[in-house]
Amino acid sequence: MASLAPLPPFVPASESWDSYLTRFDCYLQANELTEVSKEQKWGLFLSLCGPEVFETARALLAPEAVQAAPWDTIQEKLCNHYVPKPSKIAARHAFYHRNQAEGESINNYTTALQQAAMYCEFRDLDDALMDQIICGVWDIRLQRRLLAKPDLRLQKAIEEAVASEATKCSAQEIRKASSPHLARKPVPVHHEEASSDEASSSEDDDVHQTKRECRKFQKKSKGQPECGGCGGNHSRAKCRFRYAICRKCSRRGHIAKVCRSAPSVNPLH
């Protein structure tokens, strides 16, 4: 089989170390080199990894010569350098603070928890994942249902969460489908209709307010006689003009505004 193009060197700024090791394994498989000895593997790897990785390997293995180092030792040294293993406490802190984000699916959340648990060294990984799924789900009603279930297992908790998520999505789709006219109406029309309705409502309120005030005034003045002294809505006995002298007829007891006397005729005219 003809040899394929050489494997590009490792570039830390654009690729993870785990990804590069996986590509190296794929390169060996594509070139039918999976059965070669470990010495040949490290020889190929150090020839293809690029000068930066090669110099790093020399420094990490010193004073031992890089050519004499076993393949497993080279892998371990380089892996600890490029992918330092986080502390168990720090990993667990990140795991227990990883809650489901709004809009994040249950499957994506579960996968993120599995990745966060890689360096936690849990004795029972399934129990830890189930506990954090229950504690970290976004839907409070789902959380209450999971807490109420006795002897819950990880797979059952995931199935329950996925079913709840699917039911919620279906309900939203049904609501959208049952109100198609809301989606078809342009936004400007809504604003215009709202403005028209608001103006009509304002006018109706003014009319009703006027009617209420009229009824209130009529109710207040109902049964009160018109005062003959001044024309007001009170009894004559309470009128403050009951002893006034009319300027029109010069009589006492009323004012000129309500005087019923005929105007006097000047005899000179």
TrEMBL record:
Residues 207-216 have a biased composition (Basic and acidic residues). It comes from the Eukaryota. The keyword DNA-binding does not apply. Residues 246-261 form the CCHC-type domain. Keywords: Metal-binding, Zinc, Zinc-finger. GO terms for molecular function: nucleic acid binding; zinc ion binding. The keyword Zinc-finger applies. Residues 174-233 are annotated as: Disordered. PANTHER family: ANK_REP_REGION DOMAIN-CONTAINING PROTEIN-RELATED, CCHC-TYPE DOMAIN-CONTAINING PROTEIN. This is XP_034969502.1LOW QUALITY PROTEIN: uncharacterized protein K02A2.6-like.
